[in-house]
Amino acid sequence: MSAPLLAVRGVETFYGNIMALKGVDMDVNEGEIVTLIGANGAGKSTLMMTICGAPQARAGAVTFAGKDITRLPTHEIMRLKIAQSPEGRRIFPRMTVYENLQMGAAVEGGTHFEADLERMFEMFPRLKERIGQRGGTLSGGEQQMLAIARALMSRPRLLLLDEPSLGLAPLVVRQIFEAIRTLNQTEGLTVFLVEQNAYHALKLAHRGYVMVNGRITLSGTGTELLARPEVRAAYLEGGR
């Protein structure tokens, strides 16, 4: 079997003296959607940020496409064809939709800008309607679509999505998850998804991991984890 596209081995991350990640092991293979679920404060976003180099792991290693990226600065990691749609969306509020997408394309050099812009508008028609509008005036769902589209404009090999459904209406959540599924199926995009909405995330993902207090406690296919009684009790009861 070929080596994973993203491999996390024995990663320990600290905030000051507080240990946030306690020896995390995790793989994402090329062409997979892998999700990480867990309660608030379990360390999910910390793992996502550690992959991106801020904060850097104090112990263990993160490799991407066979290259050790554990000690690389964030901007160098992003140049390796990794893109992130961060928690809280973090679009540029004073820039228009068009300008936000230009910023995403800058990493790639902007050579395919017009073609990629059309792809984004096909996926998220609402963005086309809002092309000249400032990011800060969009609805939460539109901002999330823009954050994902901005990440995709860099033509990543790995897309990192941090809590894409947070605070959004169920209809918008379904639309966003459907777009992720389509990208994976039609373009083979590899996706690592951190998500509190365990039901949607595990239905979408090929494989999943469960994190509790900075440790991976369970792993399996999305279907296997959906069927586990402890997962159902902790994350799915009334969670749809």
What is the secondary structure topology, with strand pairs?
Blueprint (H helix, E strand, L loop, with lengths): L5 E10 L2 E11 L4 E5 L6 H8 L7 E6 L2 E2 L5 H5 L3 E4 L11 H10 L6 H11 L1 H5 L10 H13 L5 E5 L7 H18 L2 E5 L3 H7 L2 E6 L2 E7 H6 L1 H8 L4
Parallel strand pairs: 3-8, 3-9, 6-7, 7-8
Antiparallel strand pairs: 1-2, 1-4, 4-5, 9-10
Would you give an account of this structure?
The protein has a 6-stranded mixed sheet, sandwiched between helices. β9 and β10 (215-221) form a beta hairpin. It has helices at 44-51, 74-78, 97-106, 113-123, 125-129, 140-152, 170-187, 198-204, 222-227, 229-236, and strands at 6-15, 18-28, 33-37, 59-64, 67-68, 82-85, 158-162, 190-194, 207-212, 215-221. It has 240 residues and is an alpha/beta fold. The protein is 38% helix and 25% strand.
Question: Which tags fit this structure?
Answer:
38% helix, 4-stranded antiparallel sheet, alpha/beta, 25% strand, Rossmann fold, 10 strands, 6-stranded mixed sheet, single chain, 240 residues
Strand order of the largest sheet: 6-7-8-3-9-10
Number of strands: 10
**Alpha-carbon Rg, integer:** 17 Å
Q: Provide the CATH top-level class of the domain at 1-81 and 160-166 and 190-240.
A: Alpha Beta
Which percent range describes the beta-strand content? 25-35%
Largest sheet: 6 strands, mixed
CATH fold field value of the domain at 1-81 and 160-166 and 190-240: Rossmann fold
Counting helices, strands and paired strands, the structural category is alpha/beta
Mean pLDDT, to the nearest integer, reads 92
Helix residue percentage: 25-40%
Shape: globular
Report the total helices: 10
Low-confidence stretches: none
CATH architecture classification of the domain at 1-81 and 160-166 and 190-240: 3-Layer(aba) Sandwich
Instruction: Say which CATH homologous superfamily of the domain at 1-81 and 160-166 and 190-240 is assigned.
Output: P-loop containing nucleotide triphosphate hydrolases
Order of helices and strands: EEEHEEHEHHHHEHEHEEHH
- Cα-to-Cα separation, first versus last residue: 36 Å
